Amino acid sequence: xxxxxxxxxxxxxxxxxxxxxxxxxxxxxxxxxxxxxxxxxxxxxxxxxxxxxxxxxxxxxxxxxxxxxxxxxxxxxxxxxxxxxxxxxxxxxxxxxxxxxxxxxxxxxxxxxxxxxxxxxxxxxxxxxxxxxxxxxxxxxxxxxxxxxxxxxxxxxxxxxxxxxxxxxxxxxxxxxxxxxxxxxxxxxxxxx
Length: 193
Prior knowledge:
Layout: H1 2-7, H2 11-14, H3 24-36, H4 40-47, H5 62-75, H6 79-86, H7 89-92, H8 98-110, H9 114-127, H10 132-144, H11 148-164, H12 168-184, H13 187-192
Helix pairs in contact: 3-4, 5-6, 6-8, 8-9, 10-11, 10-12, 11-12
């Protein structure tokens, strides 16, 4: 299909597309091509207009697009835009009320305010203390920003909740994330030195 054809293109081929003539699905494919090649500015040029698209494609998860852009904003240390974009998540993912709060906490940590970010996570998990999937997602998010020791705390909670609920598939996912975090403890500190 057209989406996969675009994803397989080189940067030079992707440069030939005119933004105004693309469907959202094709625009996202071009944006992801730029993303994969580390072309942040061009990624943003194609991805940002998708958030306010009037003709949304049912094949796209627009909340996931926002999360991808916010993650890229964090890498660029453009926290102001990242926080602004998070406010779109309740509209784009009304069935996922915790998504905006979760990513706001993670972005707060990434912006350097660790104490406030972890307080936000703590408040969120106190309210949703039985949600093993939330604890897993937070653990994975923390792994993604190299907070491995903190991630293990959340993953241990997810593991305990998944065991109690006898959720085998979830437990496998938690175990995989736990192994990843454990392998990386100390590694990120050694690289930073």
